[in-house]
Design a protein that fits this description.
Blueprint: E1 9-14, H1 21-25, H2 80-83, H3 88-92, H4 97-107, E2 111-115, H5 128-145, E3 153-158, H6 164-176, E4 182-185, H7 201-210, E5 214-216, H8 237-259, H9 262-265, E6 271-273, H10 281-295, H11 307-314, E7 315-319, H12 326-333, E8 338-340, H13 354-360, H14 367-380
Parallel strand pairs: 1-2, 2-3, 3-4, 4-5, 5-6, 6-7, 7-8
Helix pairs in contact: 5-6, 6-7, 8-10, 8-11
Length: 383
């Protein structure tokens, strides 16, 4: 397609799951626990429930305190009503694969790696087999979704860390049998185990062996240890939680992998930190390097390099299309570790003008091509 002379690969384009995804793809043995929804009548994500109507996990406007104003009745997530007029065409087709490709054409995208909107497995109270079954169903659906154009629509795979053996098995199945080119995980601790706990090494080892990236993408309102839970029920929680959730959790994830010993043990593993801005990264790497230099003798996990060296060798971080501080990031760490996403079809996406926003930002010569295609292609192994 080569928009304005650039090929473009969206590193983290989202889908809106259909209401009957789990009824069609989940093992029938789960019976009344199979998530179900109602057919979509307006723009926004589906709210899945058990057969008795209980939500699997409240999110969006459901998760806000009773004292929080809800100006748009029936809105699934804050802001969806404000942008709904832009999504009439994909809504008419139920956000199917044909509409996804049309949205890519409208934006000028050549290839997109597709990610979930609202993952249902992010709940420490779920038994591992059930959480993994939720992921398996989503991964099977996503593989079928991408068959509409296997060159342009590229699947990611949902992986849950409830049980390391199940995670390894699903990683292998999703990559080798379903054709996924990346793994989507949440960065929050799972049942008290942080992502740099050696318990999870088999997952990172399998990803390294298969040559696929581990992509960390925070989830909204998980029943897991998440930093912004401290704002729940407090004044203006809708602003505070949404502003800090993704950047803070990704900052912790960068620390876990670059200063927790993971990338020392897996030097060929590729890791991405998605949808949480990049402007904070130079400071975070500076802080990690400074503390490591002062306290490396106290480390119980081997580290042969500075935390920033691991990041620059193995990691990628996504840029928001209107993130005006990008120029400073490029100045401080270069442009080789930055990727881009339109965030379609979410409330904070600038689709179909997301790329226009990015093109309007000033940046050094050569950086734009790297961010729009080269780095994304290297991250996912796309030709």
């Amino acid at each position: 397609m080569a928009r304005d002379g650039y090929k473009i690969l969206d590193s983290d384009m989202h889908v809106f799951e259909p209401y009957d995804l789990y009824e069609k793809y989940m093992d029938p043995k789960w019976g009344e626990r199979i998530p179900r929804g109602k057919p979509r009548t307006k723009h926004g994500q589906i709210k899945f429930t058990y057969s008795d109507g209980r939500p699997l996990r409240p999110s969006g406007t459901q998760a806000l305190a009773a004292t929080t104003p809800k100006p748009n009745s029936g809105e699934s997530s804050p802001g969806e009503s404000q942008v709904a007029h832009r999504y009439a065409k994909p809504l008419a087709r139920g956000y199917d694969a044909v509409s996804q490709l049309a949205a890519m054409d409208d934006e000028g995208l050549d290839v997109a790696v597709l990610f979930r909107t609202f993952p249902l497995h992010c709940d420490d109270s779920l038994e591992p087999e059930y959480a993994n079954a939720l992921c398996r169903a989503w991964n099977d659906w996503m593989a079928d979704f991408c068959k509409a154009d296997a060159k342009r629509l590229r699947p990611s795979a949902l992986i849950t860390l409830h049980d390391v053996d199940l995670a390894v098995d699903e990683t292998r199945r999703a990559i080798t049998d379903l054709g996924a080119i990346g793994l989507c995980l949440v960065p929050e601790p799972s049942n008290g185990k942080h992502i740099h706990d050696r318990y999870y090494d088999p997952v990172w080892r399998e990803a390294e062996k298969l040559g696929v990236p581990v992509c960390f993408h925070p989830a909204a309102s998980p029943n897991q240890d998440q930093a912004v839970h401290r704002f729940r029920g407090q004044s203006n929680e809708a602003v505070l939680i949404n502003a800090f959730r993704n950047p803070i959790e990704l900052m912790f994830a960068v620390g876990s992998f670059c200063a927790g010993g993971v990338l020392e043990r897996f030097p060929k593993l590729r890791v991405a930190f998605l949808e949480g801005n990049c402007s904070w990264l130079p400071w975070a790497l500076y802080r990690l390097d400074e503390r490591w230099e002062m306290r490396k003798d106290y480390c119980n996990e081997s580290m042969s390099m500075k935390p920033s060296d691991y990041f620059l060798r193995q990691c990628f971080i996504s840029v928001d299309v209107e993130e005006d501080l990008l120029g400073d990031v490029v100045k401080r760490i270069g442009a080789d570790n930055l990727v881009i996403s339109t965030d379609y079809p979410h409330a904070d996406s600038h689709w179909p003008d997301a790329v226009n926003h990015f093109m309007a930002m000033e940046m050094p010569s050569g950086a734009r091509k790297k961010i729009l295609w080269d780095n994304c292609a290297r991250l996912y192994g796309v030709d």
